[in-house]
Input
Amino acid sequence: MIDLFSLGVAITLGVPTSKWISKNLFDKEYKEIRRVTKTLDYLFADQKIYNLEGNKPKIMDIKITDCGYYISLDIQGITTYSNLENLSEYIKSLFKAYHVELSSNKGNIVTLDIVNKEINELTYRAISIEPTKLICGYDLKGKPLIVDMLKTPHIGVVGTSLSGKSKCIEGALKTLRGADITLVNCFKDDFKGIIADRINGNENILEYLKRVVENKTIRPRPYYIVIDEYNTLSNIKGIDKIIQELLSQARHYNVYIIVIMQKGNSEDCKFKQLFNTRIAFRTIEESTLRAFLGVGVGSGALNQREFYLLHSELKKGKTYTI
Output
């Protein structure tokens, strides 16, 4: 179908009609946009997304990106953002996409970021950033996922064994320049590439964390404390209280806590609400993942090394190959 409006504009501007028709009928991008438009029309019809007058959401814009499509819809008087969000898995299958991200920052305007081109495995590479920022992996477009401890301090990480938790944090710590690190309760085979002090043994860990809590001086360099396999420590008397104190006040002293665990429900981690940054890998039950994040996420199991990151916004990502 020829866009008669743009054809009229072309004629007004003196563009030869045959040249315009040739460009638009055979232009690859134009064909792709028409295909996306037809897919959206099918979506609206199949899912009955229209009002009593038969009006469907207005397609405001379709952009072809390096990874798929970026679509803007005006849904005023037609449907709601929640209704479209509930159809995210259906939209994903319709576009044969790897990921669909919906957002709405302008009331009745909803954007669909559709990723249908898989990013090749990305290898870790050093990026120069401030020592209060950490690169946790990359999003489904291949862009680094960066969290800022000045804005969303302290990180909680949950996931089953071998899901990618430790490699995620190892990659984040490898980027750091101008920061100090202490690894708590970490196996000697983990975090091999990280220069850090190591604290192991229940009594040593408890005494160390007490000293950190009591130290009220502001550190000149960011200080990261990584507590691995938290669930194995939770039975130590008094340790939960100390960790809660650290999460509540440590950022004022330039100290940032990273806690890695396999179980993240409220009964397993009583202070999860104090993590302003949360990373969830594959869990035994999807309900655990949602409970830890505290927000709804798309259905479907995560693959190894895939995760959801919640800080200033919710993102899906993957760890770098280290």
User: Anything to note?
Assistant: The CA atoms of residues 157 and 260 lie 5 Å apart.
